[in-house]
Amino acid sequence: MTPLGIFGGTFDPIHFGHLRTAFELLDVLRCGEVRFVPAGNPPHRDAPLADAQLRLALVAVAIADQPGFVVDDREVRRDGPSYAVLTLRELRAEFPARPLCLLLGMDAFLGLPQWYEWREILPLAHVVVAHRPGWRAPADGPLGELLARCRTDRVDDLHEAPSGRIYIHAVTQLEISSTDLRDLLAAGQDPRYLVPEAVRTAIRATGSYFRPSTRR
Ligand code: ATP
């Protein structure tokens, strides 16, 4: 049974940094599928600029032509904060024995100890961290302790157990963020070559992002 990759995020909006990371991990992890799971009500941050239905629709058009990429709307349908642990519990109930891999950028991984019930995540899934070359794994603190116990350099370990390992992998760095995209769009600039053409077209059609963002 191939692992199921789970890529959560606010995706406000989705961009090539997300897509390239997911594409490289789909290949290197030998996942059968990467599920993009847009957060309905992302905790730990300001409310998204675009509503959940639009963010979901943009993910759907962005991934439409990539085999193995799937959009999952469960966090948009669920009431309350979009805690990852709740999503992983649901997926574990649906896939009792399948390896689950929660895909995270390094910035997200470093914030893991602030997540709701974060210590319940590794019993439910592996954690795969996409990092930039030259980055050093935390040696101390709760993440250092977790890495010392759970880190592996073998992709096969992610296939042989349903959960519990941490795998760190360098991906091509694309310095694109949704924050910068929102600012660019609000300033009336063109997002061409930062997002797929279908996303660019859909954003232009809605006009949703063409107002000033008040935060970084
Ligand atoms: P924002 O700027 O609004 O915080 P973001 O661009 O960081 O958004 P998110 O939707 O918050 O995007 O991120 C979802 C996931 O994608 C996170 O795990 C994050 O680390 C990762 N990610 C975001 N941008 C990149 C990028 N350019 N390259 C690789 N991973 C990324």
Characteristic terms for this protein:
alpha/beta; 39% helix; 7-stranded parallel β-sheet; globular; 10 helices; 216 residues
Structure, explained:
The chain has 216 residues and is α/β, with parallel strands linked by helices. It has ten helices and seven strands. Helices cover 39% and strands 16% of the residues. It has a seven-stranded parallel sheet, sandwiched between helices. Helix 8 links the parallel strand 6 and strand 7. Helix 2 (52-63) runs antiparallel to helix 10. The termini are far apart. Adenosine-5'-triphosphate binds at residues 9-12, 17-18, 21, 104-105, 107-108, 130, 174, 176-179.
The distinct ligands, each listed once, are: adenosine-5'-triphosphate
Strand order of the largest sheet: 3-2-1-4-5-7-6
> How much strand content do the residues show?
15-25%
Question: What is the count of helical runs?
Answer: 10
**Secondary structure: number of strands:** 7
Task: Please describe the topology of this protein.
Elements: E1 4-9, H1 16-28, E2 33-38, H2 52-63, E3 69-71, H3 74-77, H4 84-94, E4 100-105, H5 106-110, H6 121-124, E5 126-131, H7 141-150, E6 151-152, H8 155-160, E7 166-170, H9 178-186, H10 197-206
Parallel strand pairs: 1-2, 1-4, 2-3, 4-5, 5-7, 6-7
Helix pairs in contact: 2-10
This protein binds adenosine-5'-triphosphate (ATP).
Residues 9-12, 17-18, 21, 104-105, 107-108, 130, 174, 176-179 line the site of adenosine-5'-triphosphate (ATP).
